[in-house]
């Protein structure tokens, strides 16, 4: 008799089926970026996905179709088979981790009962007291804009999480690009 595990597998399969696939023959970097963005959107729309195990993958047709499309982005670039699978896994793992921070930032106001602005307003006195010249590198980086975000339409913590997702994804894709370049004769 089907139970909770089977229901969750069907739910994962349904979410996977609703996600866009990269265009056939998409450039690998753009395709992986699109796949990561689609996965991030799915985690944001369905936060329960972050609680589902990735060590025992759902092998439904939609999940497998997405995986095949993602693998195809790196096919033919000279990578060893294990590297193709490893690069896809790295992007998936990175996206899941970053999605956790994004979802936490989105849910924080409802869980705490206070907005980002209210929370930061309460933190400023503590930060000023604790900093008091004791953390010069932190202070210099703050002064240089290291903690600025790309926009102000969203709450700071959410925008910061989204900015960090983009930055980290670029680093990861640069690494994959370097691996592809190194694999060419």
TrEMBL record:
<keyword id="KW-0805">Transcription regulation</keyword>
<dbReference type="InterPro" id="IPR004111">
    <property type="entry name" value="Repressor_TetR_C"/>
</dbReference>
<dbReference type="InterPro" id="IPR036271">
    <property type="entry name" value="Tet_transcr_reg_TetR-rel_C_sf"/>
</dbReference>
<keyword id="KW-0804">Transcription</keyword>
<dbReference type="Pfam" id="PF02909">
    <property type="entry name" value="TetR_C_1"/>
</dbReference>
<protein>
    <recommendedName>
        <fullName>Tetracycline repressor TetR C-terminal domain-containing protein</fullName>
    </recommendedName>
</protein>
<dbReference type="GO" id="GO:0045892">
    <property type="term" value="P:negative regulation of DNA-templated transcription"/>
</dbReference>
<feature type="domain" description="Tetracycline repressor TetR C-terminal">
    <location>
        <begin position="22"/>
        <end position="178"/>
    </location>
</feature>
